[in-house]
Amino acid sequence: MTLQPNTLFKGSLITLMLMIFGMIVIGGLTRLTGSGLSIVEWKPITGIFPPLTSYGWLIEFSKYQQSPEFQKINFGMTLPEFQSIFWLEYIHRLWGRLLGLVLLIPTFLMVFKRQHRELWFPLVLLWILGAGQGLMGWVMVKSGLLHDPHVSPYRLAAHLFLGFAIFGVALWMILSLYKNKLTLKRTGYSQNAFRVLMKLSLLALFLVLLTALLGALVAGLKAGLIYNTFPLMGGDLIPSEFLSQFPWWKDCLENPVSVQFLHRVSAIMTTAVCCGIWIYQRELPIPPLLSHAFAGVVIAAFLQLSFGIATLLLVVPVGLATLHQAFAFILFGSLVYALYLLHTREES
Fold first, then answer.
1. Are 36 and 30 in contact (CB under 8 A)?
2. Residue 171 main-chain phi, psi, to 5 deg
């Protein structure tokens, strides 16, 4: 049976979003296993092929041996050990290239089959963000190939934020394809209540992104390996090292203890606001679709907070830390979905 262009358009976008989420998981695993600096060159075209011969592997390994990570950290690494970290970074980069190929499908259908031309702006934005993400990924890796065998926390945060942007745009496009089914009908609800829900949801979205920013800095500074207790840090609710450096704003961004403390506070605030939204909307005569969306938000928020605490207490195990990162995007996506419903409601 031949697929209809409209079905192919929707299917390709859904596949794209699932692959973006997969990229997030792979990226987390790559970072947590220390695989991100194993490929020391950026070859967008020829880099699609891994070493295919023993000689090719020796050449690739010799390039890695010139890097600060090998010379300062992994100087005893053998070729088989190098191959184990190489493959994860290779899959990470290959997955990014495959995302571009999948994005070609809706692009072709829009340009040549005139499908969903109203979505041209977010589609173009996806291409721009995707190209920027590939470039930022290399800029981030490059920062760990010069002298310090660790990537810049700021560039890591920028790389993560581009991931949020790409995921959010792709999700919004998919929701737009189902607008007729997702538009909330007029049911006599209070428009003022909906405006309050919109503002609270935007606040929650801001807090999710702020928490993610601080989480990226925690990862870049290895701050998750400090004070693996909760809720106290060194026996205090507010650690003694907090704001111990000057100026204060630099302390909040570069002092590992301060960054971990702020990450904790913002995560708790995020969960509290999400819970507050859920409690508030329960008393309103709103459509079940929206009520279920906010139930999903509060569940995702509690799970994300729980995974974060467990990751800290267990000293950052790879699997749990990856799940923690993945659920940040699930929470983000849940809020985007709720905001889409609020945005497309019919005015009474």
1. yes
2. -65, -45
DSSP letters spanning 223-240: GGGS---SS-BTTBSS-T
Residue 36 has what DSSP assignment? T
What is the amino acid identity at position 341? L
Write the secondary structure of 119-135 as one string of H (helix), E (strand) and C (coil). Answer: HHHHHHHHHHHHHHHHH
The encoded tokens of residue 13 equal: 């976008």
> What are the residues whose beta carbons fall under 8 Å from the beta carbon of 244, sequence distance 6 or more?
251, 255, 258
Amino acid at 75: F
- What are 233's strand-pairing partners? 236
Question: Could you tell me the pLDDT band of residue 1, with boundaries at 50, 70 and 90?
Answer: very low
Averaged confidence pLDDT in the chain: 92
Question: Which sign, positive or negative, has the C-alpha torsion 34, 39, 42, 43?
Answer: negative
Structural domain boundaries in the chain: 1-177, 183-348
Dist CA 157 CA 290 (whole Å)? 31
Strand partners, 236: 233
The whole model's pTM is what? 0.93
Question: What gap in Å lies between CA 328 and CA 301, rounded to an integer?
Answer: 8
Other beta carbons within 10 angstroms of residue 155's beta carbon come to 19
SS3 content of the chain, % helix, strand, coil (to 5): 75, 0, 25
Angstrom distance (rounded) from CA 141 to CA 166: 20
Q: 218-260, pLDDT tens digit by residue?
A: 999 999 999 999 999 989 999 999 999 889 999 999 999 999 9
Provide CB contacts within 8 A for 213, sequence distance 6+.
157, 160, 161
CA distance 300 to 330: 7
CB–CB of 162/136 below 8 Å? yes
